Amino acid sequence: MIGFFDPRYLLFAAPAFLLMMWAQARVKSAYHRAMQIPAPLSGAAAARHILDQAGCQSVAIEEVGGQLSDHYDPRAKVLRLSHEVYQSRSMAAVGIAAHEAGHAMQDAQRYAPLVIRNFAVPAAMYGPRAFMVLFIGGLIFSMPGLMWLGVICYGGVLLFQLVNLPVEFDASNRAKAVLADLNIVDRDGALAVKDVLNAAGWTYVAATLQTLMTVLYYVMILMGGRSRD
Known about the structure:
InterPro entries: Zn_peptidase_2. This protein is mainly alpha-helical.
C-alpha cells in the first residue's frame, strides 16, 4: 500500500505530525494567555498606526470572519483581520495585527523572499492536484516517468513552504521591533507577543517538515521500484 496506510509513511511523517500537534497546542496556549493581557490599542488600530508610520497609508484594513483567519493580500493591498483580532485590545490582537502589517511592509519594500513566494503560489495551489493525477496515472499504466513528474509537482509545495519560512519569520521580527519602537507594548506585553509569534512560527516549520518527509517517502517508493527492476 502506498500513502497514508503504509507503515513506512507513518514512520516518515510521525516527527512532523508530532511537531505540528505540539506547535498547535502551543499556539492555542500562548494566544489564550496573550488575549488576557490588555493593550492600549485594538488590533485594527495598532495595524493602522504601524502601516501609517511605515508609509503604507494606501493599505486598507478589513474585518473578516473566522478565527485566526488574519492575512495580508498583496494583490488587493488589503490587510484582513479576524473579528477577534480586529476588535480586541489585547497583546494577542496587536501581535497578530503587527505580524500581518509586517507582510504589508515587506510588500512595499519588495522584500525578495516575499516576491519569490508570490510567484510560487500556483505551485502550492496546483502541485498536489497534479501530483495525484500524474502519480496515480503512472501507477495504473506502469509509467514511472509520470510518477516522477507527479513527485516533482508536489515538490512545488515544498519550494513554496521553504521560501515562506523566511517571509514569516521576518514579518514576526518586524512586528516585535515596531511594537516596541512605537510603545504599543511594554516589557510584559513584548514577551506575550513574542510567545504568540514564536509559537505560530513552529507551525510553519512543522508543515514544511511534513511536506519534506512526504516528498522523500515517494522518492523512496520510486527508487525502490527502480532497484527491483
